[in-house]
Design a protein that fits this description.
With 221 residues, this protein is of the alpha/beta class. It has helices at residues 3-8, 41-44, 51-57, 114-118, 120-123, 158-170, 172-192, and strands at residues 34-40, 61-66, 83-87, 94-95, 105-111, 132-134, 211-213, 218-220. Helix 3 (51-57) runs parallel beside helix 6 and helix 6 (158-170) packs antiparallel against helix 7 (172-192).
């Protein structure tokens, strides 16, 4: 099966293979915090991207694609009356738990590999003046994202970082709700690869779902 044909079998919303779609588990979450996902164009094409899954859950969110060769980065659309904060571990970053806000936050989240994310502050106009925040470490809660090799210790998938940040800013219930479709995405993908058994998948495997090998286009239960 060609890559083009395989892409056509993916859900346009969650980007999972249609037989493994997690859209039924995507919640509609209203938050005081506005999430602005700044995604690199190369990352935006990947079916394993999790940033867009987060924005599908969040009513108060927006996606900006950067890194297009033909256009320069424009200033980000920061909502009037909000405090912009860049979620990135820069040298001058402050733990998010130590910041105090007297107005709603626009949480700016770079999405891409570490090299791509590190360029947002220098290449997007106005970002040098925006304070940077980091997440407090959770040594006993490692990332549940097992679909890519993480280049940094304690690295998180984008949706995990957003969930933990919103847990601080908007409460634990928002964090837990975001993690549900993410866990399903990870575990159904691992199941399709043959790395998990049915009972090891959170919420189980829907009836009639078949394992899918993208390289061959074949299915098996």
């Amino acid at each position: 099966m060609s890559r083009r044909n395989n892409a056509s079998l993916r859900c346009a919303r969650c980007r999972m293979h249609q037989s493994l779609c997690v859209c039924a588990l995507i919640p509609t979450l209203k938050t005081r915090t506005r999430v602005l996902l700044v995604i690199h164009r190369a990352e935006d094409r990947k079916p394993t991207n999790t940033g867009r899954l987060a924005t599908e859950c969040l009513v108060n969110s927006e996606v900006v694609v950067r890194g297009r060769r033909e256009t320069e980065s424009a200033p980000l659309p920061i909502a009037e009356g909000t405090q912009p904060v860049l979620l990135y571990p820069a040298e001058d970053a402050v733990p998010l738990t130590e910041l105090r806000f007297d107005r709603p936050v626009t949480l700016i989240v770079p999405d891409g590999n570490w090299r791509q994310a590190s360029k947002v502050r220098n290449r997007v106009p106005g970002m040098r003046e925006v304070p940077c925040a980091t997440l407090p470490p959770r040594p006993l809660e490692p990332s549940v994202y097992r679909l890519r090799v993480e280049a940094h210790d304690h690295g998180l998938a984008t949706i995990e970082a957003i969930a933990r940040a919103l847990g601080i800013l908007d409460g634990d219930a928002i964090e837990q709700a975001l993690m549900l479709p993410f866990r399903a995405m990870v575990e159904r993908t691992l199941w399709a690869r043959g790395d998990l058994r049915d009972h090891e998948v959170t919420g189980g495997i829907p009836d009639g779902v078949m394992r899918h090998d993208p390289s061959s286009g074949t299915f098996a239960r």
